[in-house]
Amino acid sequence: MNDLQIDYFMAVATNSSFTKTSEELFVSQPAISKQIALMEKELGVKLFIRNNKRTELTEAGRRYYDFFSRYKAEMGNIKHEVSELEGVTSQTITVGILEGWDFSPWLTRVIKEFRDSHGYVDIIINYYGAKELSTMLLTDEVNLAISLKSTFDSFAEIESSNILTARKKLIYCKYNPIASKAELSPEDFVNEKFFAPWSIMDDSIVKSINTSMQPYGIRPNIQFVNNFESMVNCVRYNLGVAICDEYTGYLKDADIGALDLIEAEYVSVAIINSSTNDEVRELYQIIKDAVQGL
């Protein structure tokens, strides 16, 4: 049995639903079910009763839920006490994330659990463009980074691991007359400007936009703007369209529509490969484990 299985068990018990837990953690339902099944096999008992509407704890499940709740609390307490005995001082871990992304469903849980067991560690999250993010990581101004795989590929000093696949999307203003078509497709936006942020302006972003639209026979007219937020606002005000991916927080905007594109990219978590900070490496591993099964 491992902490990941316990975390999944506690989440399913709290939500009374495998489906809700899957959506909350960004982990596939089969992956969660597999870990719960392994846990039940090791413990020799059934932990849940499933019916059409709810997933409920068995009597054994309730007892294990109470036990693991105490275990989590005590583990956090003992780690804090030991750190004080060994003279561990407080520290701050700075996490850098590619601008525009929203990982709140699962990253919020990961950070909470990490801080519950590392009370002496503060975490700060800052958002950067891709080029700035790699620089901040290399200069130790960011301790851990989450960005597209391509952000880190050319740096031998960076250790990274793919954790998610990000499907590309074309975003547009819902008030654009084109958006009223019954069956909308990327080809319909052939004459629109494609906005992109200066903060990631280089040959790679131009290549990425062109590659995304190539299957649709479009050679985009690319217009650079100040930053990611400016790009989204240009779309919101119906000045053109843009390419982003499924983790872009602005997809929740009521005025913005999105079309799935064929292309996808890996999302990676990264640290400096020479890092000797145990807490940073532990958080790095926890983030990798949190998206297991995706």
Automatic annotation (TrEMBL):
SUPFAM superfamilies in alphabetical order: Periplasmic binding protein-like II, Winged helix' DNA-binding domain
Annotated protein name in UniProt: Transcriptional regulator, LysR family
GO cellular component, one term: cytosol
Residue span(s) of domain HTH lysR-type: 1-58
InterPro entries with a match to the protein in the record: HTH-type_LysR_regulators, LysR_HTH_N, LysR_subst-bd, WH-like_DNA-bd_sf, WH_DNA-bd_sf
Cited PROSITE patterns: HTH_LYSR (PS50931)
Family designation: Belongs to the LysR transcriptional regulatory family.
GO molecular function per UniProt: DNA binding; DNA-binding transcription factor activity
